[in-house]
Amino acid sequence: MMRALIGRRSVDVRGARSWVLALATPVALLLAALLVYNASFAAFSAKSETAVNSFSTGTVRLWNDHVDHAVFDVSDLSPGDHAWAMVRVEYAGSLASTVKLYAQVDGDAEQDLAPYVELSFRETGSGATWKGTLDQFAKLTDYGTGVVPFEMAPTADGATRDAFFVIDYKVLENAPQDASASVSFVWEAKTH
């Protein structure tokens, strides 16, 4: 065994060498790991991103020229009486849609004349028509049962589009006296 005398103490050279080697191996491994870790971040990199993406919904806007007043408000009718009127429906939406016509009936109103009034609706552009009694029309109460469908699409310049409806009525020959009926005409647009 080799021993060296240093001052008054003797040091085991072989033990010190083993101790240094035992400590050097983990330190070397740690240094190597740090070098690999740092080298991995030294690589070239690049990224690319888009401009801000945005999302917005379109519009469906519908109006008619009889919003504030009835198309027909007649009294003292007799069998055979008839008349017609025109209603303009204006579309100002940004999305293409299908427009349908249906009824809105006041549940408390008398409807005893409804089976004796013949109605017809005709959209002048497409020629789409519906014909029946006021009683039959009053049963069409939502978009799903709506009639006279027609397409409305936005214009390239954002202008409104118009559709014109000719509405006819005729009191049938067997209509009872002192009877009445009432209904509102509703146009509704829905996107495709």
Please outline the major beta sheet.
Answer: 5 strands, antiparallel
Do you know the CATH architecture of the largest domain?
Sandwich
Number of domains: 2
As laid out across the biggest beta sheet, the strand order is 3-4-9-6-7
Termini separation (Å)?
A: 98 Å
Low-confidence stretches: none
Count of DSSP H/I helices: 2
**Helix-strand pattern:** EEHEEEEEHEEE
Number of strands: 10
Please compute the radius of gyration using only Cα atoms: 44 Å
Per CATH, what is the topology of the largest domain? Immunoglobulin-like
State the helicity in percent bands. Answer: 10-25%
CATH class of the largest domain reads Mainly Beta
Mean pLDDT: 88
Structural class: alpha+beta
